[in-house]
């Protein structure tokens, strides 16, 4: 089975398994997703969702966060780990939004990449979830699963995985496909235990098991 054919079948079955999918970070504004995705590095989404509640009570908008001392931000976000660097990036990012973009998150991938603390994964998440554009978010679940399934061949570098997936994933499916990989990676194709292949409906098209 060619990679594109395998991808199409996996997309179809994941849709059946996880008809409702989406980002598990809580946000009601684009700038909040920028903050949360930075905090989510090496931290669970569940913990980030708790921590940001206090952050937004104290600093409720871009202006407030941009004006805040990074040390005050760090005090709140420390439970997410890497508090110093995350607070520094959040502070600098919010200042850029305030000073250069009128407090709004730019709707351009390359411009997003110029913001402090924003890499390809974060920029793709913003483009897909906020602006509804095609996006491939190569987080750890995505990289693990597409290698196991045989959609990429032993590629671990996020950007290379992203570029390989663009060749075989229809653009209109890309964003939800990545969210469903997270769903599947948490539920069945796990990292910290052996994957639960015995209850996975993808075994006949998965290189790890059936191909």
How would you characterize this protein structure?
The mean pLDDT is 96. The protein has 211 residues and is mainly alpha-helical. The N and C termini lie close together (8 Å). The chain folds into 2 domains: 3-22 and 136-205, Helix-hairpin-Helix base-excision DNA repair enzymes (C-terminal) (Endonuclease Iii, domain 2, Orthogonal Bundle), CATH 1.10.1670.10; 30-130, Endonuclease III, domain 1. Helix content is 58%, strand content 0%. The protein has 11 helices and no strands.
Quick summary:
The chain is an all-alpha fold. Helices cover 58% and strands 0% of the residues.
Shape: elongated
Number of strands: 0
Strand content: under 5%
What is the chain-wise order of helices and strands?
HHHHHHHHHHH
Protein structure class? mainly alpha
**CATH homologous superfamily of the largest domain, by name?**
Hypothetical protein, domain 2
Low-pLDDT stretches are: none
The CATH class of the largest domain = Mainly Alpha
- Output mean pLDDT: 96
For the largest beta-sheet, the strand count, sense and barrel status come to:
none
């Amino acid at each position: 089975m060619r990679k594109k054919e395998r991808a199409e079948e996996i997309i179809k079955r994941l849709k059946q398994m996880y008809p409702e999918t989406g980002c598990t970070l809580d946000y009601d504004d684009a700038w909040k997703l920028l903050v949360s995705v930075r905090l989510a590095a090496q931290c669970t989404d569940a913990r980030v969702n708790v921590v940001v509640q206090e952050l937004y009570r104290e600093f409720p908008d871009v202006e407030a966060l941009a004006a805040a001392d990074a040390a005050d931000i760090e005090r709140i976000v420390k439970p997410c780990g890497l508090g110093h660097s995350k607070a520094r990036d959040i502070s600098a990012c919010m200042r850029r939004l305030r000073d250069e973009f009128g407090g709004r998150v730019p709707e351009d991938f390359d411009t997003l990449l110029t913001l402090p603390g924003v890499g390809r994964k974060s920029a793709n998440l913003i483009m897909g979830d906020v602006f509804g554009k095609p996006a491939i978010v190569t987080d750890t679940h995505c990289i693990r699963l597409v290698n196991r399934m045989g959609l990429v061949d032993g590629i671990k570098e996020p950007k290379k995985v992203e570029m390989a997936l663009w060749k075989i994933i229809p653009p209109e499916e890309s964003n939800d496909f990545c969210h469903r990989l997270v769903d599947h990676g948490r539920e069945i194709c796990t990292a910290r235990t052996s994957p639960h292949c015995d209850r996975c409906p993808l075994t006949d098209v998965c290189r790890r098991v059936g191909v």
